[in-house]
């Protein structure tokens, strides 16, 4: 599904990723864990195609296709989804309108038929119900005045409707209490299937109690220093980053 | 009226602390302004011809100019022919070689003002890192500059501008009038014609000035205008922090102060300029006080340069002052931190201009205005993004606090953008001092006057913390004193 | 074209208007003539015209094109039509018994409107050259009066058509309206301007007696070569409410001033505005809200979308008089610059003489929010569509302040029309 090969990325002339390599096969959940400043957010923004995140060398292949030069909207249409650490507030655009615009735009881009208003509403209501997203939230401007939990649920709702092949979850657990975390994790788990992969980026092991990864990678100094199964996350939690990264080095 | 308010009113009887007059025999230029007076001033200072010509050209220009009237200031027009443009303590020598030669009465004056001029005294009491070099300007002349030798070792030039004109003419000629042109405005042009003294600072490339530099201005003689001129040049990658303080005796007539300050920051250089302005503000009926018409401007000429203005304006009957930054160099930064306090019948119209010319230039304006009594306090500011200022940023926060129902607080920002990628954010608020906060303090046993000082100091915190240590404590006290008698 | 517009020329027909005018009206006109002759045509040396030099605009030949637009109509409304500044009774559909033509008012020596016409917000009228000109030259217009406790049953649509062929008519057209709402009266007015006036001044005076309520939506949809200065003056008394929404697309010279005085306790003024300016157009929104009584509130929020090489200005002044304790005033201005050459000048001014007040203002200028743009794109929305969406969202917040759905639809329709006409400017980073 996703292959990252010896990726170097600089932001404002500063090298952040220094030879990141990673392969996520279809249907698997991979976690990237790392201390502050390891390059976690840079990884997610680079995958989504944010301006200013300059790939100086290396490659990103998504479903076998070179991804580096594609604008964010084309990556999205091809099945890439980034759940933001801090979802953006857009006053003046209702969540409902936003979701419809996004669903239609992706359908158009893929040459598929746009869902009718009725089909869309049915899809939206079903998904919203599961995530406990109220009708009122859908009518309010996107993320404006939403609590941390509401914002993250809204991200999962978007993921549900947009049906990506790869979902990158950037610190989705940040700012969530345990109940909100569980609700978000259930939403994510419901979307797990053999055609879909996940890349869960997090600082803490906590989220991985709820979204169980197949592989755990440790990111430090801009590259993967160690990979292992889910017990690696536990080991990190027990021993701390310094000890585990120290062993790896 | 509550009891605590009465206590405050009593306190208002306190007089301006620096209102005394020193008995020093002075020498004056003839009263009024003419070419002859300018020639007199120039001759007194043994100036080269180019300097005299510069002055005369300015005078010619000034005669065709009109006094500006756009500020929210009301005062009887100044009679420019009824002033002395030059007053100097009479001494046998034109400039004293050392402290021993300075008139003891003068030293006594500065001692009373809390400005020690004796290096031994300073060294005795203070850690070397906190040393401050002082240029003391008394009426129209610089009387003494301390720590000159120490500074010279570091390559720093710190001297009266009159001395710089003769000793470093190439530097003065290269920079004088390049930030504030002779034709800039009525008061600046007048200053260009008649300026008598002021400080000159040059920090060579790569030098971090080893101590704070400071000028202390004192108007003593009556009916005398003070027209000082300051020029500070920070060469590439240098740093200097400069402090300015001012006081004047308590007199019934108004006195004129029209200074010009020019700052030049070359590539990578930083200038921090702090002012505590405490000219005599006039009495509680509005009689007397200094008219303070000052042009201060900094030019961030080089890339990555920075100029930061911090001012605490508590004195003067009339303040007309807009310390500004021209952000020419790419990535250059301008800052303006201001506290303006007006009480009784004081009027202040002050603010800044941030002119963004270069790419990725940044500016920050924090202004705190406090009006009390019958005073009027205006913030006036301009933020302009020119078409080439890609990625420029400005943030402005402008707060006014009103104490009493007879005063006014006004905010007049001009915000102009000619560049899409430039971002401007401006916020302003005006409100009264919080009764809840006052009551809370009182209920904890803090008296009203102290409570006001506490709350106002809190209101001004963002600005006060920009001041160098030496000034911050003094400024905090001043904030309290300036507002005495203002609650009721 | 190229003819110099002088004070004399603008006033040349003023004296001819005196025939058939009641003495009070003649005196009023004469005051206006005197004021305008004395002050002259405002230029940028006059502080409040710093960003809008009318004298210059009147000497330059106006350029700019107009395109046909979707019609502006409000179903079920009364209609007052002005064709090139002249009232067109045949095409109008007026409410019964509450409208008097201006000419009849001016001819009536015992007119009850003698004490209000030309007197609303007197402090701002002093020293206002264009009000002087309009008073000297006013001929067309009407007075609308709603009696105590009554509500105008349908909105009144005042429709101004300024035919393009009249562009050369530089003597100017000068229309005067007076709206008086007696105690507790209510009305809704939609004022629209279409076409290309050569030079028009439109002055609307509003008197809102106690607890009266006026909703006023004005839409300036003028051609690129138009020159217009419109002034809305208001006296809002005790517990009365004025709610305005101003939409403007600018012109060669297009300025609207809202000058309101809150004269009674609990009076309230709320003004929202949007300006969409492109090409070489100019657009100026100027407001002066004077709080002259305690417990009064005002709110102003203006949003500008600027492209091409347009020049816009927003000057908003809040004045609080010493007697206006407990005033609450808020002011916000946001400008979105979409092109390299567009310019905006903002001057949000506070002039406060009372201490127990809460006044604040904010202003921003800049391009589209890049974080929001990126976010939309990561959801698969193409860049151009995402840009258009953000511009619409920016304006939506202004539209949301219009309470009546039918009026909101008219305003929204105008915005949609503008956005589709200028889609390229809006959606390209250029």
Structure explained in plain terms:
The complex is a heterotrimer of chains A (249), B (488) and C (430). Chain A is α/β, with parallel strands linked by helices and 249 residues long. Chain A has helices at residues 40-48, 72-77, 95-109, 117-130, 135-139, 148-162, 178-190, 206-210, 231-239, 241-248; strands at 2-11, 14-24, 29-33, 53-62, 65-66, 80-83, 90-94, 141-142, 166-170, 197-202, 215-220, 223-228. Chain A has a single domain, classed as 3-Layer(aba) Sandwich (Rossmann fold). In chain A, helix 3 (95-109) runs parallel beside helix 6, helix 6 packs parallel to helix 7 and helix 9 (231-239) crosses helix 10 (241-248). The relative contact order of chain A is 0.19. Chain B has one domain (3-483). Chain B is built from 13 helices and 23 strands. Chain B is α/β, with parallel strands linked by helices and 488 residues long. In chain B, helix 3 (49-63) runs antiparallel to helix 9 (186-194) and helix 7 packs across helix 8 (169-175). Chain C has 430 residues and is α/β, with parallel strands linked by helices. Chain C has 10 helices and 19 strands. Chain C has helices spanning 7-11, 23-39, 54-59, 102-107, 122-125, 129-137, 370-378, 383-399, 405-421, 423-427; strands at 78-83, 86-87, 99-101, 140-146, 156-162, 173-181, 186-195, 200-208, 213-222, 227-236, 241-248, 253-262, 268-277, 282-291, 297-306, 311-320, 328-337, 343-352, 358-366. In chain C, helix 7 crosses helix 8. The longest helix of chain C has 17 residues, at 23-39. The interface between A and C is medium-sized, with 29 and 24 residues. Strand 23 of chain B pairs antiparallel with strand 19 (358-366) of chain C, so a sheet runs across the interface. Chain B: Belongs to the iron-sulfur cluster assembly SufBD family. Chain B: It comes from Roseibium marinum. Chain B: It holds the Pfam family SufBD_N.
């Amino acid at each position: 599904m996703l292959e990252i090969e010896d990726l170097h990325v600089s932001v404002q002339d500063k090298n952040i990723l220094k030879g990141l390599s990673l392969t996520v096969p279809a249907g698997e959940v991979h976690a990237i864990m790392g201390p502050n400043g390891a390059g976690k957010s840079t990884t997610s923004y680079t995958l989504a195609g944010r301006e200013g995140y300059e790939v100086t060398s290396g490659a990103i292949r998504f479903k076998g296709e070179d991804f580096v030069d594609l604008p964010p909207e084309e990556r999205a249409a091809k099945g890439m989804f980034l759940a933001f650490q801090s979802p953006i507030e857009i006053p003046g655009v209702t969540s409902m309108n936003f979701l419809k615009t996004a669903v239609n735009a992706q359908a158009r881009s893929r040459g598929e038929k746009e869902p009718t208003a009725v089909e869309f509403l049915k899809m939206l209501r079903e998904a919203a119900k599961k995530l406990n997203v109220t009708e009122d939230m859908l009518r309010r401007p996107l993320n404006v005045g939403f609590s941390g939990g509401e914002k993250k649920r809204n991200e999962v709702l978007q993921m549900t409707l947009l049906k990506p092949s790869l979902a990158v979850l950037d610190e989705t657990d940040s700012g969530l209490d345990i109940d909100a975390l569980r609700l978000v994790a259930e939403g994510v788990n419901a979307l797990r299937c053999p055609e879909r992969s996940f890349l869960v980026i997090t600082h803490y092991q906590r989220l991985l109690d709820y979204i169980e990864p197949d592989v755990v990678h440790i990111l430090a100094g801009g590259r993967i220093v160690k990979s292992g199964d889910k017990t690696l996350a536990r080991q990190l939690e027990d021993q701390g980053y310094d000890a585990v990264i120290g062993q790896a080095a | 009226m509550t009891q605590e308010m009465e206590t405050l009113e009593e306190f208002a009887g306190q007089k301006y602390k620096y209102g005394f007059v020193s008995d020093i025999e002075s020498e004056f230029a003839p009263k009024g302004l003419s070419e002859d007076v300018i020639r007199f001033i120039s001759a007194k200072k043994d100036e080269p011809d180019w300097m005299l010509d510069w002055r005369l050209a300015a005078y010619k220009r000034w005669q065709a100019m009109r006094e500006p009237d756009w500020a929210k200031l009301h005062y009887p027009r100044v009679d420019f022919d009824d002033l002395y443009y030059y007053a100097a303590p009479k001494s046998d020598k034109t400039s004293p070689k050392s402290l021993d030669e300075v008139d003891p009465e003068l030293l006594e004056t500065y001692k009373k003002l809390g400005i020690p001029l004796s290096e031994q005294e300073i060294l005795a009491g203070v850690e070397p890192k906190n040393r401050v070099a002082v240029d003391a300007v008394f009426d129209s002349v610089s009387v003494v500059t301390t720590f000159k030798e120490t500074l010279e070792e570091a390559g720093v030039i710190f001297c009266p501008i009159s001395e710089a004109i003769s000793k470093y003419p190439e530097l003065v000629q290269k920079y004088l009038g390049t930030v504030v042109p002779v034709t800039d405005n009525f008061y600046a042009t007048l200053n260009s014609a008649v300026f008598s003294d002021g400080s000159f600072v040059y920090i060579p490339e790569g030098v971090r000035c080893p101590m704070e530099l400071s000028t202390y201005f004192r108007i003593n003689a009556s009916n005398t205008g003070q027209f000082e001129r300051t020029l500070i040049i920070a060469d590439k990658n240098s740093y200097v922090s400069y402090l300015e303080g001012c006081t004047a005796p308590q007199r019934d007539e108004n006195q004129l102060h029209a200074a010009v300050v020019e700052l030049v920051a070359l590539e990578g250089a930083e200038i921090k300029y702090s002012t505590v302005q405490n000219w005599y503000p006039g009495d509680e009926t509005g009689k007397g006080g200094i008219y303070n018409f000052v042009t201060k401007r900094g030019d961030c000429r080089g890339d990555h340069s920075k100029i930061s203005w911090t001012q605490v304006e508590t004195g003067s009957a009339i303040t007309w002052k807009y310390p500004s930054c021209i952000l020419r160099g790419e990535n250059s930064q301008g800052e303006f931190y201001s506290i303006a306090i007006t009480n009784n019948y004081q009027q202040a119209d002050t603010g800044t201009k941030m002119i963004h010319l270069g790419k990725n230039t940044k500016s920050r304006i924090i202004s705190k205005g406090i009006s009390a009594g019958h005073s009027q306090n205006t913030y006036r500011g301009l933020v302009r993004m020119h078409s080439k200022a890609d990625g420029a940023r400005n943030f402005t926060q402008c707060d006014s606090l009103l104490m009493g129902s007879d005063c006014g607080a006004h905010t007049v920002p001009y915000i102009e953008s000619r560049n899409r990628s430039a971002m401007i954010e401006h916020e302003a608020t005006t409100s009264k001092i919080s009764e809840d906060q006052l009551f809370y303090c009182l209920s904890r046993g803090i008296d009203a006057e102290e409570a006001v000082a506490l709350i106002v100091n809190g209101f001004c915190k963002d600005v006060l913390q920009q001041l160098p240590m030496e000034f911050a404590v003094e400024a905090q006290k001043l904030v309290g004193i300036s507002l005495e008698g203002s609650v009721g | 074209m190229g003819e110099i517009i002088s004070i004399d020329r603008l006033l040349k027909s003023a004296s001819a208007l005196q025939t058939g005018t009641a003495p009070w009206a003649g005196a009023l006109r004469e005051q206006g003539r005197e004021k305008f002759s004395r002050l002259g045509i405002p230029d940028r040396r006059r502080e409040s015209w710093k960003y809008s030099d009318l004298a210059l605009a009147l000497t330059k030949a106006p350029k700019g094109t107009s395109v046909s637009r979707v019609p502006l109509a409000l179903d079920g409304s009364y209609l007052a039509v002005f064709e090139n500044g002249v009232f067109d009774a045949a095409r109008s559909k007026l409410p019964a018994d509450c409208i008097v033509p201006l000419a009849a008012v001016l001819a009536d020596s015992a007119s009850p409107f003698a004490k209000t016409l030309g007197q609303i917000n007197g402090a701002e009228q002093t020293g206002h050259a264009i009000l002087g000109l309009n008073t000297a030259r006013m001929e067309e217009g009407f007075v609308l009066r709603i009696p105590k406790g009554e509500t105008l049953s349908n909105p009144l649509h005042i429709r101004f058509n300024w035919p393009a062929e009249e562009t050369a008519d530089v003597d100017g057209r000068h229309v005067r309206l007076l709206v008086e709402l007696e105690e507790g009266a209510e009305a809704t007015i939609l004022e629209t301007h279409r076409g290309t006036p050569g030079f028009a001044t439109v002055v609307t005076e509003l008197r809102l007696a106690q607890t009266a309520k006026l909703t006023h939506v004005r839409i300036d949809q003028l051609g690129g070569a138009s020159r217009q200065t419109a002034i809305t003056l208001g006296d809002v008394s005790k517990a009365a409410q004025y709610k305005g929404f101003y939409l403007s697309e600018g012109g060669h010279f297009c300025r609207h001033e809202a000058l309101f005085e809150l004269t009674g306790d609990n009076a309230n003024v709320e003004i929202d505005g949007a300006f969409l300016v492109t090409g070489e157009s100019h657009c100026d929104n100027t407001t002066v809200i004077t709080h002259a009584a305690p417990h009064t509130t005002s709110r102003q929020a203006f949003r500008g979308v600027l492209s091409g090489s347009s020049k816009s200005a927003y000057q908003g002044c809040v004045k609080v008089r010493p007697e206006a304790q407990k005033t609450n005033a808020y002011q916000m201005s946001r400008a979105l610059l979409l092109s390299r050459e567009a310019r905006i000048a903002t001057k949000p001014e506070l002039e406060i003489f009372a201490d127990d007040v809460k006044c604040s203002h904010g202003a921003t200028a800049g391009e589209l929010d890049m974080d929001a743009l990126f976010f939309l794109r990561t959801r698969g929305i193409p860049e151009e569509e995402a840009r258009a969406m953000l511009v619409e969202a920016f304006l939506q917040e202004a539209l949301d302040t219009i309470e009546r759905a039918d009026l909101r639809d008219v305003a929204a329709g105008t915005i949609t029309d503008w956005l589709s006409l200028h889609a390229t400017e809006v959606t390209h980073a250029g």
